[in-house]
Amino acid sequence: MAENAHDPGMSRLAAEPWLYFFLSHAHVKPHHLIDDDPGRLVMTFFRDLCQHLMQMTNCPGGELPGYVDLSMRSGTEWDPEIKRALGVCRAFVPLYGPRYFASEYCAMEWGAFSHREQLHRKASTVSSTQRAIVPVLWSHFDPGGAPQVARNIQLTSFDMDARYRRIGIYGLLSTKRWDDYDTATYEIARDIVETAELTQIEPCDPSMFDSIENPFQGTIEVGP
Which parts of the chain are coiled coil (predicted)? Predict the structure, then answer.
């Protein structure tokens, strides 16, 4: 796309179609009385998804098929790399839980990707309602309590998924339900690939995310 040519970072990422997914999650600030890293299990899940996608796609060796940000951010400023990843990833993977829809950062990420979806639909000659969003149940959470924009997006379903739907990926990892976790992670990875191949969402210039509509509340002015 011509509008991306002026941004070297965007051009580099746009030329890397193996960035299949952006993992969006609510960051948890660590507490000095708790030794465990709050982002540890998120990273475990991210790595396992990437391992599956490395086998399911032609992602080159030495490259990651996904993106996750584990830094603790302040204000509404984004690292440019986050915006670039949102501008080129082929699917958006939000981790649903009580914290997710209360997080301004998650709203910014969802809003940015949704804006990109809208641009893609406007430019496309094929009418489709298929979303490039693959939600994941992270912890015990009723999806019916999600904002309206998220209620019509289906969770990945598979045989014997009752425990996953009850306690989520975090619950499966925490209680060491390895068989359930392995099955859920594999099926979610497969859903990501199928969604990416079906939607074929085009990259966009990340500067379009500088002012976006918060899909959970209102408008957010995003810092550079």
Answer: none
Per-residue pLDDT tens digits for 144-167: 888 888 888 888 888 888 999 999
Per the structure block, which two tokens stand in for 26? 């609510």
Lateral strand order in the sheet of 91-96: 66-68, 21-24, 91-96, 136-137
CB distance 23 to 68 below 8 Å:
yes
- Inter-helix orientation angle 178-199/40-56, to 10°: 60
Query: For 116-126, how does the pLDDT look when each residue is reduced to its tens digit (9 = 90+)?
Result: 988 888 876 66
Strand (E) or helix (H) holding 11:
helix 8-14
DSSP 133: B
Buried b (16+ CB within 10 A) or exposed e, 5-30: eebeebeebbeebebbbbbbbbbeee
